[in-house]
């Protein structure tokens, strides 16, 4: 096979990229402050409502939904689906308040900001909608598909396309302010593009060539670039959104692992070689993640040292995670949603609506909300 830039899904790389991390084991018995080390929770999922969004697809043998419900501060949620529609939904009942056709599959979470909904579609169009009725305010177009969540701040909207171009549009008019592109590598890369994060007057974004960059939001001028790995490395993409924590940024290279860099300069502080990280979040003193090799893990954000790791049961491949109280919700691509203990990653219970998930649930103080691969939006409670 000749080499080329081939976009392949994270969840389907297990057979080709397995880097065995060993069986689950406690690596730091002492529990840092901020993590519940005492509670031994038990829970079960109690579904309160289910709404079919893009579920009428009998011709698809392996459907996937990359949309993720986003909660509004005053209640209700909004989610985009593969049928090309955006939906505003009541959190208490699942009632659809409005739906708006975008015209292309929505493969990333939408963004809510200042009473507006920003939606990026797989047809390469970015839409600004009103929160109240879903009316379109403006539309902007790119050259390739959008597969990452837009970032909003400093009067601009930033989003990357699948050709690794970062676009920055004016938040009010939708006019292109500037764009930034790095040379795409001539080897295999991961499906999707980097996801920009706006912090202060900077935009931080990763790219398929393994670089993380800091750009000035108003001009696109490059402040610094950090090479997170070998430039010749396949699957070295920096695709996940960086995590900002004071003076530091935490970034993931799919083949290279997890990196902590200094926000002001991009200087490397530490590196932990965990291959095939599919999702990473921060809670207290820890970074919590899942790997396509079948593991959920915790490392210390101070130095990257392992705290614990646990291999998922039944050879499941986790793709995303989120937190709720003392538990983590771990989504798997073709199987159940697992609830596992934050203290050690061991499963408490699982819930399987039969089709798997691509995104982790979101939670408010009452319920959890998730979109299954079959296009059903669920609202559920956790019964302890």
Keywords summarizing the entry:
Methylamine Dehydrogenase, Chain H; disordered N terminus; mainly beta; 384 residues; 1 helix; four-stranded antiparallel sheet
In short:
The protein has 384 residues and is mainly β.
Assign the structural class, choosing from mainly alpha, mainly beta, alpha/beta, alpha+beta, or little secondary structure: mainly beta
Per CATH, the class reads Mainly Beta
Instruction: Find the CATH topology.
Output: Methylamine Dehydrogenase, Chain H
Helix content estimate: under 10%
Sheet with most strands: 5 strands, antiparallel
Approximately how much beta-strand content do the residues carry?
over 45%
- Cα-atom radius of gyration: 20 Å
Chain-averaged pLDDT: 86
Oligomer: single chain
Provide a descriptive summary of the structure in words.
Residues 1-26 form the signal peptide. This protein is an all-beta fold and 384 residues long. The protein has a single domain (7-383), classed as YVTN repeat-like/Quinoprotein amine dehydrogenase (Methylamine Dehydrogenase, Chain H, 7 Propeller). The protein is 1% helix and 45% strand. The chain is built from one helix and 35 strands. It has a five-stranded antiparallel beta sheet, with no helix packed on it. Strands 3-35-34-33 form a four-stranded antiparallel beta sheet, with no helix packed on it. A four-stranded antiparallel beta sheet has the order 4-5-6-7, with no helix packed on it. A hairpin with a 2-residue loop joins β12 and β13.
